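Exercise 7. Given the components listed, write out the predicted structure of the assembled complex. Treat all entries as one system.
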Amino acid sequence: MGMTITEKILARSAGKDHVEPGELIMGKVDFCLGNDITAPVAIDEFEKAGFDSVFDSERIALIPDHFTPNKDIKTAQLVKQMREFSKRHGVRHYYDVGRVGVEHALLPEMGLVGPGDCVVGADSHTCTYGALGAFATGVGSTDLAGAMATGEVWFRVPESIKFDFAGELGPYVTGKDLILYTIGQIGVDGALYQAMEFTGRSIEALSMDSRFSICNMAIEAGGKNGIIAADDVTKAYVEGRFRREPRYMYSDADASYVTTYRWRGDEIPLMVAKPHLPSNTQAAAELADVRIDQVIIGSCTNGRIEDLRMAAEVLRGQKVHDDVRCIVIPATQAIWQQAMEEGLFQVFVEAEAVVSAPTCGPCLGGHMGILAEGERAVSTTNRNFVGRMGHPGSEVYLAGPYVAAASAIAGHIATPDQIRSKEVAA
Amino acid sequence: MSAAPGNSAARMSDGGRTTITGRAWTFGRDIDTDLIIAARYLNMKTAEELAAHLMEDADADFPTKVRPGDILVAHENFGCGSSREHAPMAIKGAGIPLVIAKSFARIFYRNSFNTGLPILVAPAAVDGIREGDTVEADLTTGVIRNMTTGKEFQAEPLPEFMRELVAAGGLLPFLKGRMAPK
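Answer.
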């Protein structure tokens, strides 16, 4: 019996020729990471357990991105703890404000993670790197402590589910819409403990940025990892960027899948996930009666350059609705600079949106755009749980950048087509 | 009945018979980690601080109502969402010695084993426990008894590897053991 790409990467990491779903293995990690919420707890555990050195100072990233620039004294203390630990152990990839970005945009961009890697991160959206043809999964702080000390992590080899999307995507439809559609179909535990492998013509036609959005949200279906095998798009992204040797791996033709979903990509509309679960999805065009107070364009899901270009395309020459605050958050310094050079900030500022420093900030109700009771946001982020962006009585609607930008202009949930037709009618 | 925080994990690692008895608090499906401990409190990292806000967005009074020794009972996908270990930490901080659910989200599942919070997967038991019932669970055998109704249920057995982790006292002692010169 052949193996899936996920099984092959895990077999290599465990030093075995073959692994089976359900098997518990000890795997060697190629890279591990933590952020300002999870790393301080990992550092405490690392020190409490009496470890005195890290397994490889080049293969650890400590990224203070969630509450930075430090939102309060407690946060400042956490980041200080990370900085001091990094200095003490020579951790090479510690980045502070001015260099730091949202971790899951930053690490691929810097070439720290790449094809064939086995990566664990103390952040649930670590699954993002699956878009590079890597096995990447979120773990807890104690796992990170163990990985930093020994380079090893335990895994239960997941069964794989295949998601095959046929056809060309419609106008404005991106990876975000495909993943929201997927979660809407299978539910927030539809892929519990399993690998989500994405294939098909619709996927092949996607940019890297759109592929990152898809794999980023595998966790929202309960998945252990999302993965897209490398192709020419991946190779073009990785070449000259990835700092180690890529290992391109592919599922065998006779690999085994617990389920295969075959969907028509060309029939998927612009999607929105309504409160309070990412699986509570509906077509954006059907939600025009939902009035909003805020729009967030950013995060590890949709804060990359392509996302900002899409938002700018809709916002160009328009104004954000009087009742709406629109906050744009480029995910990294490099994306920030690129957007600035392309003139996107001019578009945002003229539309009366504000541009923030890179941060996870409002996505998890940290800072930089918290909602009051009864307020509603359309957000390009990944979770719409109760209280996720602020008051437990606030609401988050998840969408891609096109819908977010169009909604900012309309003051209610809208698609770019609805904005255009309004213009024509006016 | 007042199991002190952390006691259960320690007793679990004795390898002997381990019984937990507590009053049940019941929850539905998809209880996410933002509900267990909201992100606005993640600038804290001690169990005591976090416990003061446990389940606050699900029930604002929960932190004052819950007593050490009480147990949590939930439907499918408990602990979904973020990887924050602050979630099991807040639960342990409140003195809760056990969570029983129909299923657990995977990062919460591994965090619980790694940090020594006992959890049991037992769909039938969840259906057979109502809020306020007194529940007794034997962590060694996986037998769960609803003392209020007298009904008995069997939790899914732990994989051998997970039993080793528990016996070692959690992930880090387990990894240290592997590193020790052979």
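Discussion: Chain B touches chain A at residues 30, 32, 34-35, 38-40, 42-45, 57-58, 76-77, 80-86, 89, 103, 105-107, 110-111, 114-115, 159-162, 165, 170-173, 175-176, 178-179 (CB under 8 Å). Chain B has one domain: 7-179.
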